[in-house]
Amino acid sequence: MTLLDRPRTTGPVPVVAARTAAPVAERVAVRPAEVQAWVAEQAALLEPAEIVWVDGSTRERHELLQLLVANGTLEQLNPDLRPYSFIARSAESDVARLEGRTFICTDDEADAGPTNNWREPAAMRAELTQVFRGAMRGRTMYVVPFAMGPIGSPMARFGVQLTDSPYVVVSVGTMTRMGDAALEQIARGASWVPAVHSVGAPLAPGQADVPWPCNDTKYIVHFPATREIWSYGSAYGGNAILAKKAYALRIASVMAREEGWLAEHMLIIKVTPPTGRSYHFAAAFPSACGKTNMAMMTPTLPGWTVETIGDDIAWLWIGADGRLRAINPEAGFFGVAPGTGLRTNPTAVDALWGNTIFTNVATTPEGDVWWEGLTDEKPARLTDWRGEQWTPASGRPAAHPNSRFTVSARQCPSIAEDWDDPEGVVIDAIIFGGRRASNVPLVVEARDWDHGVFMGATIASEQTAAAEGTVGELRRDPFAMLPFAGYNMADYFAHWLDFGRRLRRSARVPRVFQVNWFRKGADGTFLWPGFGDNARVLEWMVARVDGQVGAIDSPIGSLPTPGGLNVDDLDLDEATMEELFRVDPEAFLAEADDVEQFFASFGERLPAELQRQLALLRGRLEAARG
Ligand code: GTP
Ligand code: SPV
Ligand code: MN
User: Fold this and answer.
1) For the residues 601-625, what does the mean pLDDT come to?
2) pTM score of the predicted model
3) Can you tell me the distance from the alpha carbon of 167 to that of 179, in angstroms, rounded to the nearest whole number?
């Protein structure tokens, strides 16, 4: 077996996306003058030793992977167990998104709003010029053109990321449509977002590199007016794969507001009941709150299928037919590893059979990967995410809680045939969710779109390891977009309300639901089995969409009638069912006080409709308290 096995050519699912490289002469010809001028300008600032234009070919990916193994950034896993797959162990200081170092630079601070870190653009530019000067010395600067959304879709958007991290290049290669095809669209006149990324670790002549170069000083900076992104010091996930959160959410949310569409932190699924008629759902849950798992769900209900369209980001718009449509702008999954197991998510486990880059998981003595929840039984001996020896007695997690896998969407066995349809899919319902140990019931339906916007705007969730901060701490995470809205969140709420008005004018308005898979009992364990059993909640939603079942009116929205939720074959006693759906008016009145405070932070800018919804909620809660 050679060190780097070529991707296998036969198997149950396609190997790395087959891309064909154009002949070199042709590739050079396609480089747009505007991009070339920008690259030259940035090179003068960044001072890289070399510039490489990335073409997106399989051969190029292979060479980059070889380079990363030689550098020690990646280690190849045992090809007999995990073909053509690799593990990266990051620096201990570079393991998650950094919200405290994420900035929105607008002329007027109020345009960034109270939920964003604002910086004055000229001052930030001056600061960044200092920080980025010579940042790529001794390193190769990669020019990485990419498309978000299927090329040819009216929704496709383009960008070019400069980076000095080959690990980031291969990650962008999986997560986007990277290379010549995107550059060609730019050459034909498509507008593009410039994104500059450096790990911030220049090399002096002769200086040895480290496996995971990064810098203790970090910046993830957005200039919405000029649609620019600048990222420094990190090579981890959303900090560095700038097409993802920085572009497809923060910058895209600004574009979407101007152009009348929505850029959202949502999964998209296609649900098919035994009747054979399919429904599409888009669901927004905060980071590490269940999107990838729901997107790849294996329903426990006989005859039901759930297919994957996207697992993290959705771009939604009103189609020519007046219906709400959505695409997944990404091309791969950057998924949370811990908790992903054969029992919880066999589809994801299947998708990871090979051609996968793992970051900060543990490895077995046989050269395969492991993380908490992959198997029920812990292996006797592992190398943990830091590279240290680990046994079950070590008393610490073997994999970092925010360890991740990076894999192509095409490799997912549940990927829908039309997942990359340029026209997107028609959305029948929108779901908001969060991680709430108490108060919030398993499922509740909004009374109408505006009430649904109020639900989305007031979602609170316990913090996870996906970003810095205290895990478990409750915070408002409106629309799961707290870290991702590129403009004032109050204006974002107004945009959602306005979008509803436009939907009402032209066609059917999707239903809106709120879910909580994470309510806990007095013993601290989850009340609801979750994962594949979440299909039972989808079954109720489908029946609601079709107008086939009634609901109980509660102060916070419509709940399933007794027996309305199919819990056949589940071992749930009466008391558990009651607790899953219990709506405590006192607890929700306290929530309402908290929401009032949250809303107050937006001052005059908060849409009056949301204050009205809050007043209505309080009225209903007080009536229920009796
Ligand atoms: P990001 O990629 O950070 O945006 O996260 P995500 O929203 O895609 O979350 P993901 O599906 O990766 O789930 C995060 C964690 O929640 C994992 O450890 C899962 O095992 C766990 N989880 C997901 N769905 C459920 C569920 O229905 N019930 C329970 N108890 N845990 C779940
Ligand atoms: C999230 O934090 O919501 C993620 C992971 O999807 S990252 O790409 O790092 O933002
Ligand atoms: Mn996410």
Assistant:
1) 98
2) 0.95
3) 16
